[in-house]
């Protein structure tokens, strides 16, 4: 290529870049996505945001790359291309301009707005390395913000940036990938949460809550009574409980406050009492801790434990919703540093009644400034349990008392012990030895999906090949002349009405479909007419004080040679979602 041709190519590239810049500048601002928030801790609606891989490059926002250095945020930057200046005696070397890709992945950038009277929301989405999902929230100074990022990919993390910019309030550093934040906000304005993954694609669930801290001077006039106080240095911890006109306490109506001087620095909802170790240093930081024990009320749920390290500033080192289990500090190795003992009850009611549902003992250790499940549990902690469970399974005849007439609950407890101690092959072997159902691959995949969504589980060990099929075909049991409100899952070539096929109740499918953008958390599936065995329709409904509301219909689309696809239709019979198929590992694939 001679110098004249090289100059013409550079000039053409400059024109192209200028055109692309004009396209970007002329793009309309996207409408903010309103996230339907929750009105109480632990209950939230879900909005799923998926990156669009077909968006033209000209519409993309420059992508920031994750770095060990605290990232900064700007309103966006411009790329300035300068035309090389020709020298009279020097011929510049030819410059090859790489082809510009026609498409590139785009991250989400959206404003999150809470409805009046609500405090939090749950958002689901997915990112790939090099792409940031950005969520913007307006909050006031002195409000309490809680952020929790849940993902099966341990490389997913987030950055939290204050309205004035500067060093982020939360960021990844030196191999530490934060997934939690709780703190009093330093200023008013728009806060930015950036979600990204350092390795591999990551689906995630982002939980955000913003609350205004209670004013102690208004507690008594609001019907609360001061029940307990602890003074530790210049901190004062208080527990207030709500009473009726006669002074009787309302179960679950209590609040814990942590004050530094006269300023409230933290608030714990449902705080019921202080752990006896409050005021001592339980984690070896050299400063005392305060431990709030929480209880919402109910037959056996729900418990929580919040721990604050009381240094120069109060640091929340644990905020654990332990469900049915409860949690308490225990020094497992007698080194003066306490672990937190609890259990994982993720399988409560999943396969059988609560009384028979297994809950595996779990332990949190203090690492990198907070309590977390950082490594598989020590197998020696379960020696007695393993012996008892193995003896019982050897002597039992596999009596089925689960929802699907199998012994899922009986065998699951022992399998979970091996999974939570980093021995998945032994966990699968337990099922192969004792499980009496015919849907072992489906059962195993369901177990893995549940525990990978738990903050108490740390994946470890070599996972065996469980023989997952590529996809599942899905058929409602009514198609096979049955009145049970079940969905039948078969593999390629298997008869759709095979009595040995995997089965799950329709609400199981409702729960699974809150990942893809098909069913929101306040909706469920309902087969109509009731008890139908032919021509059943699967309505998407929600329930309120005024009764049942039908929002649309879910259809199973079975085409010869293709996996079953599911799709949402509105009341006018028009499709309003993408099509999704169920893989053998129980993840969804867009068709």
Task: Outline the structure in words.
Strand 25 and strand 26 form a beta hairpin. The chain is α+β, with helices and mostly antiparallel strands and 591 residues long. It contains seven helices and 30 strands. The strands form eight sheets. Strands 1-3-9-5-7 form a five-stranded mixed beta sheet, with no helix packed on it. It has a four-stranded mixed beta sheet with strand order 2-4-8-6, with no helix packed on it. A four-stranded antiparallel beta sheet has the order 10-11-12-13, with no helix packed on it. The protein has five domains: 73 residues, no CATH class; 126 residues, Sandwich (Jelly Rolls); 99 residues, Lipocalin; 125 residues, no CATH class; 118 residues, no CATH class. Helix 3 packs antiparallel against helix 4 and helix 4 packs antiparallel against helix 5. The N terminus is likely disordered.
């Amino acid at each position: 290529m001679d110098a004249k041709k090289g100059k013409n190519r550079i000039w053409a590239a400059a024109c192209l870049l200028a055109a692309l810049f004009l396209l970007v500048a002329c793009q309309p601002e996207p409408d903010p996505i309103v996230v339907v928030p929750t009105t109480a801790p632990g209950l939230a609606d879900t909005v799923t945001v998926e990156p669009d891989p077909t968006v033209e490059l000209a519409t993309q926002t420059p992508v920031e790359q994750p770095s060990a250095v605290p990232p900064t945020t700007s309103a966006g930057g411009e790329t300035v291309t300068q035309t090389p200046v020709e020298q009279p005696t020097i011929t510049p070397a030819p410059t090859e301009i790489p082809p510009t890709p026609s498409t590139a992945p785009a991250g989400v950038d959206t404003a999150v707005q809470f409805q009046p009277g609500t405090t939090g929301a749950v958002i689901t989405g997915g990112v790939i390395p090099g792409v940031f999902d950005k969520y913007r929230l307006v909050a006031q100074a002195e409000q309490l913000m809680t952020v929790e990022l849940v993902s099966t990919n341990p490389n997913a993390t987030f950055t939290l940036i204050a309205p004035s910019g500067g060093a982020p309030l939360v960021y990844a550093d030196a191999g530490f990938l934060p997934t939690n934040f709780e703190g009093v906000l330093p200023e008013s304005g728009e806060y930015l949460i950036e979600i990204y993954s350092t390795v591999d694609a990551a689906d995630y669930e982002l939980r955000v809550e913003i609350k205004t801290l209670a004013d102690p001077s208004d507690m008594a006039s609001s019907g609360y009574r001061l029940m307990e106080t602890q003074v530790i240095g210049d901190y004062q911890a208080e527990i207030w409980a709500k009473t009726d006109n006669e002074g009787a306490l309302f179960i679950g109506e209590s609040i814990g406050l942590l004050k530094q001087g006269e300023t409230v620095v933290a608030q714990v909802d449902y705080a019921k009492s202080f752990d006896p170790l409050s005021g001592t240093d339980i984690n070896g930081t050299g400063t005392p801790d305060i431990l709030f024990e929480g209880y919402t009320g109910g037959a056996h749920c729900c418990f929580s434990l919040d721990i604050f390290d009381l240094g120069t500033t109060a640091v929340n080192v644990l905020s654990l919703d332990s469900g049915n289990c409860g949690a308490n500090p225990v020094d497992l190795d007698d080194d003066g540093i306490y672990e937190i003992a609890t259990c994982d009850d993720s399988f409560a009611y999943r396969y059988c009644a609560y009384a028979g549902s297994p809950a595996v003992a779990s332990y949190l250790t203090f690492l990198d400034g907070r309590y977390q499940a950082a490594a598989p549990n020590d197998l020696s902690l379960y020696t007695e349990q393993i012996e008892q469970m193995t003896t019982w399974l050897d002597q039992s005849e596999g009596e089925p008392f689960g929802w699907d007439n199998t012994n899922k609950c009986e065998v699951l407890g022992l399998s979970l012990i091996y999974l939570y101690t980093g021995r998945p092959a032994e966990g699968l072997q337990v099922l192969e030895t004792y499980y009496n159902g015919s849907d072992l691959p489906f059962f195993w995949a369901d177990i893995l999906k549940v525990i990978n969504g738990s903050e108490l589980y740390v994946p470890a060990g070599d996972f065996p090949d469980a023989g997952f099929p590529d996809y599942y075909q899905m058929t409602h049991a009514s198609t096979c002349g049955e009145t049970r409100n079940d969905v039948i899952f078969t593999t390629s070539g298997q008869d759709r009405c095979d009595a040995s096929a995997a089965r799950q109740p329709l609400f199981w499918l409702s729960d699974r479909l809150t990942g893809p953008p098909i069913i929101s958390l306040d909706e469920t599936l309902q087969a109509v007419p009731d008890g139908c065995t032919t021509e059943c329709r699967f309505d998407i409904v929600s329930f309120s004080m005024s009764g049942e509301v039908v929002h649309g219909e879910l259809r199973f689309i079975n085409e010869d040679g293709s996996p079953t696809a599911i799709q949402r239709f509105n009341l006018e019979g028009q499709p309003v979602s993408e099509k999704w198929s169920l893989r053998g590992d129980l993840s969804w694939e867009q068709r």
